[in-house]
Write a structure and sequence with these properties.
heterodimer, A: 171 residues, 3 domains, 6 helices, flat, B: 70 residues, alpha+beta, two-stranded antiparallel sheet, 5 helices
Chain lengths: 171, 70
């Protein structure tokens, strides 16, 4: 008798869960996925801009000797850092919000998004390898500072992944 | 795979049911771009997504998708 009650409870629970899921899908605001998708795209776009300005000026200031330009680069770099940090925090907040809703999380990480992410990292990998190859070639003839090589490789590697992601996910 | 082309009836079925790409995407649980790229043949969906789309339209997978030789 007890096992029959348990079975009935489990069956009812499953039916209820299924109904709840059905209701949730049907009640999901049609444009909510698109709104969040657009927000994510814009945040990554600003992250890319922030990264390119911040680290770009950081690398450039090692190559420039004029004090006036150096001061300007520091301020521009600071602006880039602020843009990057603000958008990174916003992006993490968005991720946390989406994480609590499994249906939304799945919709925003559907197979096309996953494929585009894979393609972006694949491209970034080859860009990074190519840069290392180019620097290796140059280093056979000229002495290059290893710190500079590291910075440029990371800068271009990250930038290429971000730009590729933006291009692949552009409408 | 270059000799094969996956055609589909999603656009037709949407028109019959009078639903937008956005609405279909929300019902299936994907982004609108995913529906758009499947419709235009730019993206080949996984078996799971193909079956989910077919179920939504109440059709068999091969009624919704057709594999043709180029």
């Amino acid at each position: 008798m007890n096992s029959i009650n348990n079975l009935t409870f489990v069956t009812l629970r499953l039916l209820f869960d299924n109904y709840e899921l059905h209701l949730k899908i049907n009640n999901m605001e049609t444009s909510l996925i698109e709104q969040l998708n657009d927000s994510r795209y814009n945040l990554i776009k600003w992250l890319t801009i922030g990264w390119s300005i911040w680290v770009g000026t950081y690398i450039a200031k090692d190559l420039i000797q004029y004090q006036l330009i150096l001061t300007a680069l520091v301020w521009v770099g600071l602006f880039g850092w602020v843009v990057f940090i603000i958008n990174l925090l916003k992006y993490l907040k968005l991720k946390r919000e989406v994480k609590s809703d499994s249906l939304l999380r799945e919709a925003l990480n559907d197979e096309l998004i996953q494929l585009n992410r894979y393609k972006s990292f694949f491209l970034g990998f080859w860009v990074t390898i190519s840069i290392i190859g180019i620097f290796f070639g140059i280093s056979l003839f000229v002495n290059i500072a290893s710190l500079m090589v590291c910075r440029i490789t990371i800068y271009v590697g990250v930038l290429s992944v971000l730009i590729a992601w933006l291009i692949y996910n552009n409408d | 795979m270059e000799h094969w082309e996956l055609k589909n009836q999603i656009k037709v079925q949407r028109a019959i049911r009078n639903i937008t790409q956005d609405e279909l995407a929300a019902q299936i649980g994907v982004t609108r771009k995913t529906i758009n790229t499947i419709e235009t043949g730019k993206f080949t969906p996984s078996t799971i997504l193909a079956i989910r789309l077919s179920r939504f339209f109440g059709l068999g997978v091969e009624q919704l998708f057709e594999l043709t030789e180029k």
